[in-house]
Amino acid sequence: MRMKSGMEQAVCTLILLARLPERTTLKAEAISERLEVSPSYLKKLMRMLVQAGLVDSTPGTRGGFSLAKKPEEVTLYDIFLAVEGRGGMYRDRGVFTSVFACEGQRSTGTCVLGHVMRRAEKAWVEVLEQETLASLLQQIRKTYSSERLAEMDAWLTSQLREEVNE
Amino acid sequence: MRMKSGMEQAVCTLILLARLPERTTLKAEAISERLEVSPSYLKKLMRMLVQAGLVDSTPGTRGGFSLAKKPEEVTLYDIFLAVEGRGGMYRDRGVFTSVFACEGQRSTGTCVLGHVMRRAEKAWVEVLEQETLASLLQQIRKTYSSERLAEMDAWLTSQLREEVNE
DNA sequence: TGATCGTGGATAAATAATATCCACAATAGT
DNA sequence: ACTATTGTGGATATTATTTATCCACGATCA
């Protein structure tokens, strides 16, 4: 039971996008270079983020991606759902009902184990829901030296693309 | 990010063993038949449970498995650790440090995302630690009809093996 | 019109989970 | 002592999931 590395990539990407000035975008290739990850897989992740409504995309010569919401409105759980999909970590595979169903009679429905697992997962989700891109950025400011943040911003300005005024 | 079906199998197995009378055992093949799962994989799971100290095993003609602890002493997290191993669900793959490390300088250590994930996982673990085989059995008694429980016990007595007195 | 970009799907490669098999050691019954 | 039975441990296949690659397409801008 391991979380996809895609989650880490998605969070990093969104943090970059969150530091982007208004009306500017970043293209997928620039992001994958910065994260040092596979360009094709990151593009796939970007599509997921777009479909989940977390990111806006603009095609074309000066196109790229930008945050669709304010940083404080994007929770870690939103990102998790976008990347890992709904469905939860535990899924009943019918073993319990095999044990307790006597001949032909099938599950009354709720598997006892599933009930506990859902409770545990809920506790887990609640933590992720309290953390947003904004709160992560705040922690990052505390954790990393200002030189690193400055370097990141410098890189961003070197890579960003200005959106065309409509 | 999906939990292994092995977890469900292990929990069911331990519940069966928990209903076993004192000084009796159940052999692996009987268990896998009851759970309707692969015999070889279940045997592998049994080895994990033995190595984790949750289950005792006795080889030989009348051998089999039995619970090594009292049902109230075995938590769901114990089982999870036995089956999924330590290491947690989130593992830093260095993407964060790629983004924030400026040339050569590598991670100061703590990845911000990892910190949150560990908090979330801790909340998740705490729920699993509060649930034991005993509490699960109690819920099972509430959930399933007494006929089913009787059927299960009947099956158990038909399959169990008496340990030889030493 | 041409270059650049995101979209979407098909598909391959890598990894993790599940399953199968076999030689071995320990035990009980004979 | 012998044999049948059972767990142990490892090697290895099979299957599912994740990660990676590739290509045809449509939109945007110079």
UniProtKB/TrEMBL annotation, chains A, B:
Record-level Gene Ontology MF annotations: DNA-binding transcription factor activity
GO cellular component labels: cytosol
SUPFAM superfamilies from the UniProt entry: Winged helix' DNA-binding domain
UniProt-listed PANTHER family: HTH-TYPE TRANSCRIPTIONAL REGULATOR YWGB-RELATED (PTHR33221:SF15), WINGED HELIX-TURN-HELIX TRANSCRIPTIONAL REGULATOR, RRF2 FAMILY (PTHR33221)
Protein name: Putative HTH-type transcriptional regulator YwgB
Gene assigned in the entry: ywgB
